[in-house]
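Quarterly update from the structural biology core.
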Amino acid sequence: MVLILQLRGAERRKEGTTTMARRPSAGNPLCPHCQEQHVVKDGHKRGQQRWRCRGCDRTFGATVGTPLYRLHTPAAEVARSLLVVMRRGSLTAAEEITGHKYETIGTWLRRAGDHAAALTHALVHDLQLTEVEVDAFWSFVQRSVGQLRSGPRPVRRGWAHAGAV
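Predicted structure, tokenized:
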């Protein structure tokens, strides 16, 4: 049924018949797929605005092209977890404090490293961090990502097994 309606819509566009089209707002983003400017709002998903491109007819959200793209965890929780990692200096400590898995926090760190320029802008302007704090954050991220890429996490033993050989 949906396929038939899509085909009919395509036929109408080819025939040149007009339909009531929504006008794009001035504040709408460009389409990340085709860079088209004719983008209209297309509802919400999990509280986040979605847009539809009239050029390629694809939908997208506000987080496309950001480290938060396709994450189910709220942005505030990711930011809090990365801040804990930075202040404690350990992914294991952040795992215990936040309740998120070591591997998950590591993935967030890698994504943060991939989008360093945009995150630096956000850290300085939105969170009002000083340049020294931002520099300390990125040096920690670089060191942590290097450790993550070096291999799997060592198996931790509880305190009762630490002395037993």
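The first strand starts at residue 39 and ends at 45.
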